[in-house]
Design a protein that fits this description.
Helix content: 25-40%
Mean pLDDT: 70
Low-confidence stretches: 54-80, 111-122, 291-295, 416-450
Number of strands: 14
Shape: globular
Largest sheet: 14 strands, parallel
Strand content: 15-25%
């Protein structure tokens, strides 16, 4: 059957709309030669090299992900080698493919040394092939590294990973730090060249207090603008690490902290003190963080450029702590704040805190917040029907008469099955509230099924 000749701009537009559907992209690549190149750019845009998946898991994952997966089966050396050989063969037959790869996910959960026979030879061969494949990825934009058993991984593979995250084109790096010691983490981060966004995951129960000399030897890149940390244990590490940047070069603009139960006293305040250019602050905290220790008052006057604060995953149940800690976050400011947007995310406790919310209305309408332009409140309706959701929204509106009159408050309700997946839910809802239109009554209610 003859394929109709469509303008290339139209073809590119069709294919761009399918960027998230790898299977459809593969089918489109077979339609005509003119379609193939645009499809390949999306198919190979993001590849995942997973050294933990077995062959069957690789088959199951392929239709669900954009890109390709290189799987390793621990018990079958041949299958493990074949996946890496396949990637190298693709690069050798189509030299342009590495230039299409912009995003890399590398997982090293398992240890290749588990092989019973000739383990050193198999290990070295696999690592050399992987390193050779990674060396061809010179135009990466982001790297997601999950270096489990990092110290046991071959030196060639470690060097290849450091080379990838140190590319001048890489602007985003995400690292899973479960198995990394302080020295390993610092040496890994020392390879960052032009990374603007850094995420440290899996540090919920880690306590990292590096020596000053180590942080001086491995200073952060001056290009860093966004830092996300999943775990209060990393706060001390980040404070010591960032403090080695000269005061005039401290340009971190966005900080996202998921506080754990082991957050040390005053640690968050110390971290803010080395981030004078901060414009966006996100604090995610389980209730027990504040119920097990005194509430720490933050002096946000130390961050005069702060424009947006997000307080997420608020699950407080004690009457005295329901809203008090929200006020205490801002209570130590010695002068009016330049805050323009405030986001409060409540979960499970909307009905219980209604009587306390009006104090927030008075507080955020006071002289301490002269620049406040929008207050967004996200609340859970997991167990509410549509009528009950609207009723809850009306009750919430009634607690903010001053902000309602100023037309700056916005209410967002969402239904979700997993209340602990804060980051995913918040991002989905965030796409909604950023463009929400306020009604004539001064409030917009968005009901989002997540």
């Amino acid at each position: 059957m003859q394929v109709p000749c469509l303008p290339q701009e139209l073809v590119d537009s069709i294919i761009d709309d399918l960027f998230h559907d790898c299977r459809s992209l593969k089918n489109c690549a077979l339609v005509a030669r003119s379609w193939a190149q645009s499809c390949r750019r999306h198919i190979f845009n993001h590849i995942t090299i997973d050294l933990a998946l077995d062959e069957q898991e690789q088959i199951d994952v392929l239709p669900k992900t954009t890109g390709i997966s290189c799987a390793q089966e621990i018990s079958q050396n041949g299958a493990r080698m074949e996946a890496v050989d396949l990637l190298l063969h693709a690069f050798s037959t189509a030299s342009y493919l590495p230039s299409y790869i912009k995003h890399l996910t590398l997982k090293t959960y398992q240890n290749p040394l588990f092989d019973d026979i000739n383990h050193s030879k198999v290990n070295d061969t696999l690592s050399e092939k992987l390193a050779r494949a990674l060396a061809q990825l010179t135009l990466l934009r982001s790297v997601d590294l999950d270096p489990r058993r990092w110290k046991e991984q071959p030196l060639a593979l470690q060097r290849a990973c450091l080379t990838c995250i140190g590319l001048p084109t890489v602007t985003g790096v995400s690292v899973q730090v479960w198995d990394l010691g302080v020295n390993d983490l610092l040496s890994l981060l020392s390879g960052l060249a032009s990374t603007a966004a850094l995420e440290l995951r899996g540090s919920m129960y880690l306590q990292c207090s590096p020596e000053k000399a180590l942080c001086i030897a491995y200073p952060p890149t001056a290009a860093l603008r966004t830092l996300r940390m999943d775990g209060g244990g990393m706060i001390d590490f980040a404070t010591t690490w960032l403090s080695n940047v000269p005061a005039s070069c401290r340009r971190l603009e966005s900080l996202d902290v998921n506080c754990s139960l082991r957050m040390s006293s005053g640690a968050l305040q110390a971290l803010l003190s080395v981030c004078p250019a901060l414009t966006t602050l996100t604090i995610t905290a389980p209730a027990r963080t504040f119920l097990r220790r005194p509430i720490h008052i933050l002096n946000l006057s130390l961050t005069p450029r702060l424009r947006e604060v997000r307080l997420a995953c608020i699950v407080l149940r004690k009457e005295t702590d329901r809203v008090h800690w929200v006020r205490s976050i801002f209570g130590a400011a010695t002068e009016p704040l330049s805050l323009r947007h405030l986001v409060l995310e409540f979960r499970y406790c909307v009905g219980a805190i209604l009587e306390d919310l009006q104090s927030l209305d008075d507080f955020f309408s006071g002289p301490q917040f002269p620049c406040l332009q929008q207050v967004t409140i996200l609340f859970s309706a997991q167990e509410l029907g549509s009528d009950e959701t609207e009723a809850a929204a009306l009750l919430l509106r009634a607690q903010f008469p001053i902000l309602m009159e100023r037309n700056v408050i916005e209410l967002i309700c969402w239904h979700t099955q997993n209340m602990y997946d804060r980051r995913n839910n918040f991002q989905v809802v965030g796409k909604q509230y950023s463009g929400a239109q306020s009604s004539k009554t001064g409030s917009a209610l968005l009901v989002r099924n997540v």
